[in-house]
Amino acid sequence: MAAFEILTWLSLLLLVGIVLTYLSHRIKISNVLILILAGIGISFIRFQGQPIISFSNDFLTSVAIIALIMIVFDSTSRLNLRSLSSVTTPALRVTSFFIIVEIIVITVATKYIFGLDLMLSVLFATIMVGTDPSSVVAILKNIKHKAITLLEIESIINTPLTVILPFIVLEVAQVFTVSDIISTFIDQLVPFLQQIVAGVGAGIVIGLIIFKFMQKQYSEILSPVTLIASALLTYILAETLGGNGVLAVTTLGLFFGNVYFKKKRTLMTFGSLFSNLFEILIFLLLGLSIVPPTNIAFYFKAFFLFALYIGLRLIVVFLNFPHKVYSIKEKLFISLNSPKGVAVAVVAFSLLSLGFSTTAIIDLSLLFILYSVILSTFTTRMSKYFLGVKQVIK
Prior knowledge:
By secondary structure, the protein is mainly α. It has one domain (3-387): Na+/H+ antiporter like fold (Up-down Bundle). The protein is built from 16 helices and two strands. It has a two-stranded antiparallel ribbon. A hairpin with a 2-residue loop joins strand 1 and strand 2 (50-51). Helix 3 packs across helix 9 and helix 8 runs antiparallel to helix 9.
């Protein structure tokens, strides 16, 4: 596809996304679900037997990464660490417990339901460990409640794992014997810790540089551009050093949100503008990327697996939170809100760009995104019942 043609289709997609987002306000439905469904609908439009819109896997991966950077930075920059101490520990507990249970159970279920080999089943389970911050914020933004704050913190904690763990599994899959797996796990432990240290370090270094130059100085033209460029540079620096780019951007966002910057509120508004722009684009592209399987049984199997996933989440949440902290309705709200989105898309598009041939994993991942966003949208519509607060659509 020529550069002019790509630019034309992207412009049209953004225009469609803006209109649909406006309509979602009017009918009081989250724009995330409408954008994904619209993308699926557009994918069926053909000209001379070919889809009218088609992008390369490398292009989709690049857009997804940029979207992830902007959305993660925007969401984390709005978190005040001083007010999160009572929520961070429970979120860590739920995240760690759920990751262990989810990987074990979903791996076994995927293997026997879809007939995939063990390592592919583990790969899918690791892709699904996280809740995506862009989806959570898009659906739950502007509602102030401790349950929603918990979901936001949880998504920030587990999103880097969504990007890191699948590729560790791919490394292990290349030496699939018991002795080699153990040695490979040990070999991968140091790089895993390196990703964490280098990621956090890159975020802090770039944050300190920005703090030095932007604490007292403000330019209406240069300051917003510098902020956006810093988020992109942080991701690139971390990945170049062998760190995790998502974790680096998360660190930078938390740094920016919790230190003094001149005209910070104005800068955050500018960041949200770019975040919303890429959010609209990425969810439309997600819909375009979902190629519906022709086997109807695949949908029922995927739905059953998703129901099992939600059941596991219910068990973990109810076991980890005593009734005096969260009511039964609040626990249900937390359990049913586990949307997938940009992070899963980045992994799926990356697998495609690597020439990954097993489409069942990719199709299943994209269906999980759709199912989870539908469930989260329905749950949020019932926020008054679950949380006693009125839903505020983004």
